[in-house]
């Protein structure tokens, strides 16, 4: 049944409908793949028994003629999503043993539509990282390797476990979250599709918070069509989330029909960085050529405040994180380190429970929010954020979608940049601007580096215009014809 793990979500959906295989067979095939791929460390928690139960329920519905939109589709869930009764850690020691008594809205909607849960994927601690090396449960390995070099590579982050699971054919799709690029950047590193919807399109309720004005749930899949299918179940208004937008959820899969003739595609000059590898520049030019050949009109645009986006992000996001993470104190749930006083318990719990990167960001956030620095840093960063949004708003008066690279490089080796936080933060230089503006963005695998590693191109759209982003991404995907896949799982 190993061939079942090579299916896409849409192909698996069709095969289940035709009776070519059962949901149980599909689940069993992916459970076997999950067990074989344990050397990647992609999962914090595996849930094979639950997967079989959900698959059998799916088969029973199908026999009755009551099949649901995602019935029987095996998915992996980033361990930032609360799952009722299932360990939820956010990749942190401080949440050891936390089994939520409730389900996140997004995962509840996936189960409502018949999806099957394989387990919870590993991630950077509290989603803080771009390499999936800050997890308390150890780094995730990408299933990819450089040509002639067997060193383990990062899968990107923070949704690295989800990206690795989809790329390694462990799951047909996975959920991720994107705060500054944590869906799109790992998608680029692992050769899959990663979609960050517009802020507010998917509910954040039941997702462990990092930066509340930036966090957004989204799908990670192997094709654009699969991303559209998953988003149809994940999106929707949620009265429990005050940032959730009450708008009709379109048929995203139907939006993939038709071409892009006459579409205006913006190419921002500010995304051409000094020192950017020539292979990234060349791939970007090919992307323009592909879209032009499909009938689109590629035009240069200016986004002048892009150069300030990364600096502003690393003020806004840590500030919100320092506030959100104040709730982890050893009193209500998770880790507790006893002390001689309440203050000592707080200090011991947070000191032992949080990793280095989380502590760094909490301290930065507390600093920029402190008296005497709030105006100089946080307030100024928010003003810059407004200017970044205005740049995009002005650009979208003339263009329908924006084309840019997803990441400034291919994946690098585990440990290669860990001693340089700034180098790590620069991984998000192309993804942060859309996050700061709350816009939809998608990464599509478009080619290989000189070392045989995946490279992605990114499309950014108007608020709540995921249909145009997906339609353009589908054309880009067809033109690129990316069919490379990672080698056999190392150590399996």
What does this structure look like?
The relative contact order is 0.14. Among the domains are: 2-259, Amidase signature (AS) domain (Amidase signature (AS) enzymes, Alpha-Beta Complex), CATH 3.90.1300.10; 307-382, no CATH class. Strands 1-3-2-4-6-5-10-11-9-7-8 form an eleven-stranded mixed sheet, sandwiched between helices. The two termini are 17 Å apart. Strand 10 and strand 11 form a beta hairpin. It contains 15 helices and eleven strands. It has helices at 9-18, 23-36, 48-63, 105-112, 160-167, 184-190, 224-234, 278-293, 309-324, 342-353, 356-368, 374-395, 421-425, 432-437, 466-480; strands spanning 43-46, 74-78, 116-121, 173-178, 193-196, 216-221, 264-268, 297-301, 401-405, 441-448, 454-461. Helix 2 packs antiparallel against helix 3 (48-63), helix 7 (224-234) runs antiparallel to helix 15 and helix 9 (309-324) packs across helix 12. It is globular. With 492 residues, the protein is an alpha/beta fold.
Task: Offer a few descriptive terms.
single chain; 492 residues; alpha/beta; Amidase signature (AS) enzymes; 11-stranded mixed β-sheet; 36% helix
């Amino acid at each position: 049944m190993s061939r079942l793990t090579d299916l896409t979500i849409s192909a698996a959906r069709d095969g289940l409908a035709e009776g070519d295989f059962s949901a149980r067979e599909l689940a069993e095939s992916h459970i076997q793949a999950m067990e074989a791929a344990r050397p990647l460390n992609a999962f914090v928690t595996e849930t094979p028994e639950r997967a079989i139960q959900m698959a059998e329920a799916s088969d029973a519905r199908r026999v009755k003629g009551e099949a649901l939109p995602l019935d029987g589709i095996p998915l992996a869930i980033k361990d930032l999503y609360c799952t009722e009764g299932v360990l939820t850690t956010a990749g942190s020691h401080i949440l050891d043993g936390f089994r939520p008594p409730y389900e996140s809205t997004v995962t509840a909607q996936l189960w409502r539509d018949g999806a099957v849960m394989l387990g919870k994927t590993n991630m950077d601690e509290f989603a803080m990282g771009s390499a999936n090396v800050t997890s308390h449960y150890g780094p995730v390995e990408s299933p990819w390797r450089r040509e002639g070099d067997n060193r383990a590579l990062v899968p990107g982050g923070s949704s690295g476990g989800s990206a690795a699971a989809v790329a390694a054919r462990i799951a047909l799709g996975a959920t991720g979250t994107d705060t500054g690029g944590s869906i799109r950047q790992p998608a680029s590193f692992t050769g899959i599709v990663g979609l960050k919807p517009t802020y507010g399109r998917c509910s954040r309720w039941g997702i462990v918070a990092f930066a509340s004005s930036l966090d957004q749930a989204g799908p990670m899949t192997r094709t654009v069509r699969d991303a559209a299918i998953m988003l149809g179940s994940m999106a929707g208004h949620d009265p429990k989330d005050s940032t959730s937008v009450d708008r009709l959820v379109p048929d995203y899969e139907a939006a993939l029909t038709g071409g892009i003739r006459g579409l205006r595609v913006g190419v921002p000059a500010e995304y051409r960085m000094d020192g950017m590898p020539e292979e990234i520049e060349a791939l970007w030019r090919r992307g323009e050529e592909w879209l032009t050949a499909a009938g689109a009109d590629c035009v240069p645009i200016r986004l002048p405040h892009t150069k300030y986006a990364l600096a502003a992000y690393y003020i806004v996001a840590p500030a919100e994180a320092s506030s959100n993470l104040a709730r982890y104190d050893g009193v209500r749930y998770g880790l507790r380190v006893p002390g001689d006083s309440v203050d000592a318990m707080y200090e011991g719990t947070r000191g032992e429970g949080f990793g280095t990167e989380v502590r760094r960001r909490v301290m930065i956030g507390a600093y920029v929010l402190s008296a005497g620095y709030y105006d100089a840093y946080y307030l100024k960063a928010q003003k810059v954020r407004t200017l970044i949004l205005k740049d995009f708003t002005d650009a979208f008066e003339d263009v329908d979608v924006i084309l840019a690279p997803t990441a400034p490089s291919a994946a690098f080796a585990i440990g290669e940049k860990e001693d340089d936080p700034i180098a790590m933060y620069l991984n998000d230089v192309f993804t942060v601007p859309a996050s700061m503006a709350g816009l939809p963005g998608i990464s599509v695998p478009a080619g290989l580096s000189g070392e045989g590693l995946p490279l992605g191109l990114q499309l950014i759209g108007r608020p709540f215009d995921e249909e145009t982003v997906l339609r353009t991404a589908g054309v880009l995907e067809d033109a690129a014809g990316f069919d490379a896949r990672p080698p056999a799982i190392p150590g399996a």
